[in-house]
Amino acid sequence: MNGRLEAIWIKRGHWGSMDGATRAVMVAGKGILGNANQGGRRQVTIIEKETWERLMAELGAALDPSARRANLMISGVSLVNARGRILRIGACRVHLLGETKPCERIEEAQAGLRAAMYPNWGGGAFGAVLDDGEIQVGDDVELLEAVEGPREVAV
User: Fold this and answer.
1) Is position 27 within any domain?
2) Is 2 exposed, middle or buried (0-12, 13-18, 19+ CB in 10 A)?
3) Is residue 71 part of a domain?
4) Which residue range is the domain that position 6 belongs to?
5) In this structure, what DSSP letter does residue 90 have?
6) Cβ-Cβ contacts under 8 Å for 84 (sequence gap 6 or more)
7) Do the domain assignments include residue 150?
8) What is the pLDDT along the chain (155 residues), one digit of tens a residue?
9) What is the pTM for the complete model shown?
10) Is 112 part of any domain?
């Protein structure tokens, strides 16, 4: 089942603002060009639109999804238990390395949001970028099976 890339945000600095974008350049082994976080295991963070909307309904809130401080929002693809799998976004791939747990700062945006996001991959996923290329809002998204052997980009 294919999904869709719904939104892109690029973080200028640690705890800096999240700038919305319609396109972004992915750099293998680093992350999104111009994003504050580069390299390491958490090169890109991803949330699901459906999960965000469910959380907002549960809390009676209407926060913009950029408040989550993730880089990408997808729809139509579940990230639950996706550790080790490959997420294809347009022509680029991201090796999903784990679940993103929300930090205490999310409470500044909405009381109760951290606890609501904590279980069952509610905070999304993080991963390492495998391919150089450009992505844009509207690109197809597909969750692929894990490729045998080490796929994580060395950092």
Assistant:
1) yes
2) exposed
3) yes
4) 2-144
5) T
6) 95, 96, 97, 146
7) no
8) 689 999 999 998 776 778 999 999 999 999 999 998 888 899 999 999 999 999 999 999 999 999 888 999 999 999 999 999 999 999 999 999 999 988 877 888 888 888 998 889 999 999 999 999 999 999 999 999 876 544 444 44
9) 0.89
10) yes
